[in-house]
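Justification of resources, computational component.

The compute hours requested in this renewal are based largely on the per-chain cost of generating structure records like the one below. Each record pairs the submitted sequence with a full structure-token output. That output is archived, and it is also reused by downstream analysis tasks.
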Amino acid sequence: MPDRVPPAYPADHYLNRELSWLEFNARVLEEASDATNPWLERLKFLAIFSSNLDEFFEIRVAGLQQQVYAGVEPQDFGADKMAPAEQLGAIDRRAHELVAGQYRILNEEVWPGLAAGGIERAQLDDLSDAEQRQVETLFRASVYPVLTPLAIDPGHPFPHVHSKSLNIALVVERANGGEPLRHFAVVQVPAVLDRVVVVSPPGAPRVRFVLLEDIIARYLPELFGGLRVVSHTVFRVTRNTDLTIEEEDAEDLLETIEESLRQRMRSDPVRLEISADADAVFVEMLVEAHDLEPRDVYRMSGPVDLTALMALHRLDAFPGLRDEPLVPRVAPSFAPGGDLFDVIRQQDVLVHMPYESFGCVVDFIAQAADDPNVLAIKQTLYRTSGVSPIISALARAAQNGKQVTALVELKARMDEQARRRSSCGGNRMGSAATCTSPPATTIPRRPGSTRIWASSPPTPMSARTRAPSSTCSPDTPKATAGRSWSWHPSACASRSSRSSSARSETPGTDAPRASSSR
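The structure output for this chain reads:
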């Protein structure tokens, strides 16, 4: 056991970290149940709740399961002194309670409210003839070609299921003389296709939609010609995505993390989500195939994985069903336009977000990349989006002969894959242990020009960033002193206390997420 400072008070004076996190997510769920919020905003909070819970199981629960099942020594020891098995039991009770409440809100409040407002989830049997033809055309043209049905029998073991992918499990029956033979099969719902399928015509006063898995389920017999589909259900497996890296032993830290990412694709399952009406035979088969415990099973009384429903929140119409969008204004100091360095040379500038636009931050780095007086750009990066104007500007600066150095946090939680895309052609330093939040930027210029430093928020460096959360770092070296500017979020009362803010993230999807206090 590593040396640690003993707690100053008895264990019952402390809150368990994992259970405290669940209570944070419960506050997100409270927003979904708040009748004063518009219906699409309440749906958004349900999706955020699901996205948060995904990460909780991928990281926190996965770590506890490793301690219980594999005897892995914990990285830290809580002052509450709850054993890992005890924590898993408490998480099981609270998480099941929260998920049940989530689907109660969805089924009893949000679905009816959206339908009354003009957004309706339709059943395939209730579609009009025109809508039925539209669904069939979509299936044959776009869905059927990318489906891969996989049978499970003694010669074909259970296939590998990617973490958080949506799948359909089914039982098929084959004629075999007097006694038919039954087999399991699996069909993955393609993540490359939109899961929310709008069937109403463009411009219609009401939006009717169906889910992609419902369309696939209707046409399952065509995927298994000659076999009878007895029953089916939708399920989703969450796997351990935490990275345990010995940084001191790694010759190349980035290569080590890339290898860990490849191994993580086949990591241990930690949770099974399945439709509430699934037959017991499916639950038994999936639990056994993934070596899970009964408490790891979550039966969903509605669509599995509500993060996909954020697509409804992005609909252009129905302004009365969502909050009025906040349009940030240009910071007054930068409103006239012109050279940002001239403005900063005259005065310090505080950009207060999200009330003021993040565009000046992008312009700041872009202008530095093209300014002949700029000698170097040195920056720490916490998160980067897939197509980041900040990264593009850094790459252009390197091409223009400037010294570009970026310190990247390789293990920024849930964004490890994005670290592989963050090379900008300059020097890149990576650290698995150092936290680069909040990012900071130093821009030395030629003698006679002002040296600039700034600190930026721990959020994706992209033009769509909304809610950063820090002011200038107090640890910025004195050598960078001079005219400075910073941007500060409205979401935080202090650096250590900030309210939840949604963001869109996950490879290949727009999964929402809320950040909690650190």
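The first helix runs from residue 17 to 33. The CA atoms of residues 203 and 316 lie 11 Å apart.
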